[in-house]
Each structure stands twice: as structure tokens, then as C-alpha cells.
Design goal:
Number of strands: 10
Structural class: mainly beta
Shape: globular
Number of helices: 0
Strand content: over 45%
Strand order of the largest sheet: 2-10-9-4-5-6
Radius of gyration: 13 Å
Distance between the termini: 40 Å
Helix content: under 10%
């Protein structure tokens, strides 16, 4: 059964940090690269960071140097450490394979506002 469950979103002030979690299950994700995506109001969902199955990480320009993706393959959990948050990071965050599968979780909402 395919399942993606994101958690950890919250309302924070600019400059603060958050760590998001993604619990995933399903053979479709086995051995695959995994990514974090986000969708802000009025915009398309976009990939912001991903981790190759073998461990290398890659980041979009908007989050490079501030966000860190990690993965615990033993528990099928992926994390996104977000530091120095900005108002423009406000979005609903999702995880999925990279390239994305047709399956999506409910996402977790991050709001950065003073």
C-alpha cells in the first residue's frame, strides 16, 4: 500500500527553524530517489530538494544553504531541516519520489510570518 505522511509544519517567525518529517511506504518508493516539494498559494507544486538513493543531496536555489534533506532508509522516513526561514517559504510541503509518483500525501503547512 502506498502511503505518504508529512508532518512537522507550523507557524513560525522569520529566522526560525523547523524540521519536517515524511513517513513513506510502498514498493514504488523502494530504491528510489526521494524529494521534497512545496506549493505556495497561487503557484504550482515545485521540487525544492531531493536525495538520491545512494545519499547525495541536491537543492533548488531558493533553499540552498538553508534547508537540509536527510533520510532514514531503515524506517522509510525522510526529513527536511529548514533553517533561516523566510516569509516566502510559506507553503504546503509534500514528499514524493523523484521523479514524482502519482501518489501524494496531505502535505504539512508551514507558515512563516511575524
Amino acid at each position: 500500500q502506498v502511503q505518504l505522511v508529512e508532518s512537522g509544519g507550523a507557524l513560525v517567525q522569520p529566522g526560525e527553524s523547523l524540521r519536517l518529517s515524511c513517513a513513506y511506504s510502498g514498493s514504488i518508493f523502494r530504491g528510489n530517489d526521494m524529494g521534497w516539494y512545496r506549493q505556495s498559494p497561487g503557484n504550482w507544486r515545485q521540487l525544492i530538494a531531493w536525495m538520491r538513493f545512494r545519499g547525495s543531496t541536491h537543492y533548488g536555489d531558493s533553499v540552498k544553504g538553508r534547508f537540509t534533506v536527510s533520510r532514514d532508509s531503515a524506517t522509510n522516513t525522510m526529513y527536511l531541516q529548514m533553517d533561516s526561514l523566510r516569509p516566502e517559504d510559506t507553503a504546503v510541503y509534500y514528499c514524493n519520489s523523484y521523479p514524482q509518483s502519482p501518489f501524494w500525501g496531505q502535505g504539512t503547512r508551514v507558515t512563516v510570518s511575524s
